[in-house]
Design goal:
The complex is a heterodimer of chains A (302) and B (231). With 302 residues, chain A is of the alpha+beta class. Chain A has a four-stranded antiparallel beta sheet. Chain A contains ten helices and four strands. Chain A is elongated and about 105 Å long. Chain B is built from seven helices and ten strands. In chain B, the strands form two sheets. Chain B has a six-stranded mixed beta sheet with strand order 6-7-8-3-9-10, with helices on both faces. A four-stranded antiparallel beta sheet of chain B has the order 2-1-4-5, covered by helices on one side. In chain B, strand 9 and strand 10 form a beta hairpin. Chain B is an alpha/beta fold. Helices cover 33% and strands 27% of the residues of chain B. Chain B is globular. Chains A and B meet through helix 1 and helix 8 of A and helix 2 and helix 3 of B.
Chain lengths: 302, 231
């Protein structure tokens, strides 16, 4: 019994492999369609990853700076800083003392003697400040309102109002990109599944008479179906292999010349994602091949 | 061995909205080792009879027994076993186009779980019987009509079936190949295999001098032991 099962499995593999290379025209079309789908889905996956990094990078550039009155002692500023950290969910806060602000100014304008002379006359006009970063743009407004209500006497300036629109726009754009990406991904995935299913369905439709003959010589439905399922898996593996080669070459050709921002190196990102990409491509290929064959053959079995 | 008991098969006709009885109350019995010709015009219901016997089509009413087993009530597994006891030959051969002559014949054994050693022994024997040893590695499109039909016969007889169903096996063949095919069927019958031959060829039926069941418009109109073509 065990031997018979093993023989059947071996024969189903042999049958699938022979069908694959003898029906080379059909196999070529099916592999091509599968490749389109695999490359499309992995590109989307990689692009969404890159987009996520870029979006986070852009979002991190949005911030609010609170300048304190020159007379406010450092300890008091630290108290306010701790208070903000306690009350609000923020990403990070950076304190710049009056001295540090002056050093930064000198570093930037040190090569302009007139500016430096004026600074010497004035002394240190720079206020101490804290720079706040948050994930949610609405938190910035809440922090500003809180500071104005509770510590208006300490605050010299908050650079929120003239940046509010920009910050909101950044968050709104990135949010839309995320939502749009998900919708486009779902639609493309559905189109891809339908495309592969119909291609394999048409291929198997052409074989319906063969399936009938297989049934008539006493072949069990399981044996017939398993050979087509294995054939589907072979199509998936071959398509995944060529998709990977293609994507691998593209990965080496494109990113060497283009870096989206200083923080995002496409080549590094691509190489880092390589194991997941290989797994995903083979998983998508095999799943689509097997699933389509399974559904398409069921109709013609008797 | 085979018993058709008042079998009726009605197909719905979607366009005319009138149902059509392809078989209408057909009853007959075939014993083991018989050679029976089922005669009738195209569309008389001969192929439907075969499809019902093979479990490809469900009958509308009546029952069919194969060795006391009601075909309507057998499981999917039993249906496979039944088909392995019946060798089928078609007018259009129905060979698997992507397989060689050898593989087409071997396939009928592969599905039964026959060992590779036995397949390697039996297939050349079957090829020798039908005179196709030299064409063993040819694909169906490289064969003549007669060679295709002989391949189909070899496939039908490879697993020593109890019954051979031959549905218009000489329909597409010239007189020489027709004679070869009939001789092969007669030889098989002489060795104890039951042969049921569906045909509308008067010459074939009259030359055989075997039992003839005549079907007309789905109804059995005659059943004679040493019959002749009467339509």
């Amino acid at each position: 019994m065990k031997n018979k099962t093993l023989t059947s499995i071996k024969r189903a593999f042999r049958l699938a492999w022979k069908n694959f290379y003898r029906e080379s025209g059909l196999s070529f079309v099916s592999v091509f369609v599968l490749m389109v789908v695999i490359i499309l889905s992995t590109s989307l996956f990689l692009l969404s990853g890159v987009a996520d990094i870029v979006i986070k990078d852009i979002e991190q550039k949005a911030d609010v700076t609170v300048d304190f009155q020159l007379t406010v002692p450092e300890e008091r500023i630290f108290e306010v800083k701790d208070e903000i950290a306690e009350v609000f969910e923020i990403n990070g806060m950076e304190y710049t003392s009056r001295e540090d602000a002056k050093i930064i100014f000198i570093q930037r304008f040190g090569d302009r003697p007139a500016v430096m002379e004026s600074l010497e006359e004035v002394g240190n006009p720079f206020p101490a400040s804290i720079n706040i970063k948050a994930d949610d743009p609405y938190i910035y407004r809440q922090i500003v309102v809180y500071l104005e209500e509770n510590h208006s006497d300490l605050i010299y300036n908050i650079d929120f109002y003239h940046r509010e629109e920009v910050i909101s726009s950044i968050f709104s754009i990135t949010e839309n990109i995320r939502k749009g990406g998900i919708i486009v991904g779902i639609v493309l995935a559905l189109v891809a599944i339908l495309l592969v299913y119909n291609t394999i369905k048409l291929a198997i439709y052409g074989l319906r008479e063969e399936i009938r003959v297989m049934n008539l010589v006493g072949s069990s439905n399981l044996f017939i179906q398993s050979s087509f399922i294995i054939q589907g898996a072979i199509l998936g593996v071959v398509a995944a292999f060529f998709s990977f080669i293609l994507l691998f070459l593209m990965g080496f050709l494109i990113p060497q010349t283009y870096n989206i921002t200083i923080e995002v190196n496409l080549q590094q990102y691509f190489l880092g994602m390589l194991p997941i990409v290989i797994l995903a491509q083979f998983a998508i290929g095999i799943f689509l091949g097997v699933f389509s064959s399974l559904i398409a053959t069921r109709k013609y079995l008797n | 061995m085979i018993f058709f008991n008042n079998v009726t098969k009605i197909y719905p006709a979607y366009l005319t909205k009138r149902e059509k009885a392809v078989l209408d109350g057909v009853s007959f019995k075939i014993d083991k080792g018989e050679f029976v010709c089922i005669v009738g015009r195209s569309g008389a219901g001969k192929t439907t009879l075969f499809k019902i016997l093979l479990g490809e089509e469900k009958m509308t009413s009546g029952s069919v027994f194969f060795d006391e087993k009601d075909i309507n009530k057998i499981s999917s597994r039993e249906k496979c076993n039944l088909r392995r006891r019946i060798g089928t030959i078609f007018q259009d051969y129905k060979l698997l186009p992507t397989k060689t002559v050898y593989e087409n014949i071997a396939y009928a054994l592969e599905v039964t779980g026959t060992s590779d050693e036995d397949i390697e022994r039996y297939v050349p024997e079957a090829l020798d019987t039908v005179g196709l040893l030299e064409q063993a590695l040819h694909f169906p499109h490289q064969l003549s009509g007669g060679e295709k039909q002989r391949t189909a016969i070899a496939r039908a007889l490879i697993h020593n079936p109890d019954v051979i169903l031959a549905d218009e096996p000489t329909g597409d063949l010239d007189p020489y190949n027709t004679r070869d095919v009939l001789d092969l069927l007669l030889t098989l019958n002489e060795s104890g295999t039951t042969v049921i031959l569906a045909t509308h060829d008067k010459e074939v039926v009259n030359s055989l001098g075997k039992r003839v069941i005549t079907i007309k418009d789905g109804k059995m109109v005659s059943d004679s032991k040493k019959g002749r073509f009467i339509l």
